[in-house]
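Predict the assembly for these two chains.
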Amino acid sequence: MRDLIPIQTIKRLPLYLRYLNELLESGKKSISSQEIAQSLEVKCSLVRKDLSYFGEFGRKGVGYDIKLLISKLREILHLNRTWRVAICGVGKIGQALMLYPGLKKEGFEIVAAFDNDKDKIGKKIGNLVVNDIKDLSKILEEKKVEIAVISVPKESAKEVANLLVKSGIRAILNFAPCHFNLPKKVKVSYVDLTAKLMQLVYYLR
Amino acid sequence: MRDLIPIQTIKRLPLYLRYLNELLESGKKSISSQEIAQSLEVKCSLVRKDLSYFGEFGRKGVGYDIKLLISKLREILHLNRTWRVAICGVGKIGQALMLYPGLKKEGFEIVAAFDNDKDKIGKKIGNLVVNDIKDLSKILEEKKVEIAVISVPKESAKEVANLLVKSGIRAILNFAPCHFNLPKKVKVSYVDLTAKLMQLVYYLR
C-alpha cells in the first residue's frame, strides 16, 4: 500500500503533525477535517483523502481525536524512534541546526558534524566536537548515521554528496543551491531559499 | 491567464532556472525537455506542460535555447528587477541569509535587519546595521521593503508576522516552525526543516 501514497500527501503529513502539536499544547482535544483544512489552507477533501490513506481514524460529527491522530501520524512517518543525523558543513546554517532544540524533540539527534576548515575542526558546538571531513566515512559508520545534512558552499556540495553516498547514506537534506544526480536508492530533499523567495515574488504583482 | 497557472508549476520554475544557470555556466547552449526532466527527476510531459504556460519557446528536434529560456523564466518570475528584503531575527539563520552572496545575484537585496536583543541591535553584519524591532514599521516604509523573512524563535513568530502585515508587507518567508493565519492578500512561504527531515525519514525503511 505504502508505495501508492502520493509524494504530495507525504509532504503534507508533517505540516498536519506540527499543527496538531500546536493545538494539543493549547489544550484542544479534537478537530474536524474542515478546521485542519481552513487553518492550513488545504482543500478539505484533500485533508480527508490524505488521512484516509492510513485507515479510518476520524469519526463523523466528532472529528479526529488530536492525541490519537498525532500518534498515528508519528507512526506513519516512522517517528516512534530516534534518527541519527550528521551535519556536513558547520557554517551558520549547520550551526543553526546543531543548536536548534526542536530537532531532538521531534526525534532527530545530531550525532556528528564535519567541516574542512582547520579553525572549526576540533571546536565544540553544543555538545559536539566538529570532525575533519576527511574522516567522514569512518565516523558515519561508527556513529551509525542515517541522515546527512549538506550545508557546505555550492562549490563543494556535489563532492560531499558523492562521498556520503559512497559511505552508505540513503537520505540527504541539501541546503546548497545545486541539484545532485545520485543513484535512485538515495533520497534527497532540497531546501532552496532563493527558489522560495522567487515563488513569493511571483505573487507580488 | 496567470491566475490559471498551478502553484506546483510556479514551484518548479525556480528549479528549472537554477539548473539552466548551472548548464549555462558549464558552457551548454541548448537543452531538450527530456534532459531537464531526467536531471531534475520530473516527468518529461510535466516539464513541457510547465513551460508551455508561458508560450511556445522550445523548437522540435533542437530543444530550448538555454539563454532564451533563462531570460523568459526570469521575466515570468518577475526577476528582471531587484526586490527589497528585510530580515526579522538576526540569529544564525538570519545571519546566514545576510551573508549569502547568492541572494543579491538573483535579485534579492537585503536592505534591513531587525532583532530585539540589545547585544545585536547596532551591530554591523555584512553591510547592514541591525535595527531595534521596535522601529520595524518605520524602517520598512523608509527602506521600501517588499519581502520580509521571519527568522525569530517560534515564540515570537506570530507577533512579528502580525506586525509585518500591519506594516503593509505582502510576502513573508517564514523559518519559524509554526503556521500563521494571515489575511489572504499576504503570501507566506514556509521553510520547515523538521518537516523536510520527516519526509526523508518516510522513505528510509
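The beta strands of chain A are 30-31, 64-65, 83-88, 108-115, 124-125, 128-129, 131-132, 147-150, 171-174, 187-190. The radius of gyration of chain A is 19 Å.
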